[in-house]
Amino acid sequence: MNIEICLATSNEGKLREYREILAPMGYVIYSPKDLGIESDPIENGTTYRENALIKARDLASKVPFPVLSDDSGIEIAALGNAPGIHTARFAKERGGYAGAFEAILNELKGKQDRSARFVCCICYLSSPTAKPLYFEGVCPGSILDAPVGEHGFGYDPLFHSIEANADFGTASEEIKNRYSHRGKAIKALGLYLSIKG
Asked: Which residues are catalytic?
């Protein structure tokens, strides 16, 4: 039996990751676009959890089944863990990811510490009034000297995963889903859903 869930995203790459991991478990993942609705609340939280909850609550008020949202970011140690929760905004303000990559690499010039990590926090709401449940994942790594590859999305071409020993811009979907911050958070969510039934 297929179980329907709506994911608060317009990002096709993010939607694909959720579907690849949850579909084999019997979940049908819709986006707001699939359902012909709009859900784009102002993300003015100060943490990943707060932003994920803002998106989940907005979407839950518009659909008749459980919802998922996530907030994620890249934290670069030498930049004080920036851009963090402002990761998407950082790229948008610089005209896209190419501009963001250039800005980050310029900021890191002369710095020895290139350590970084991706962070993901998923919020699950079974109904608009339900208590939110959170599932989190972290992917440690480092910033490359230059972007590589065309796989993945977002900041992937600039990131090397320590655990996967792979650059996310060239890694397969299977490798990325196994080691990525979002992959880990989705697996934690999937475990909860399988137990919950």
From this structure: 71
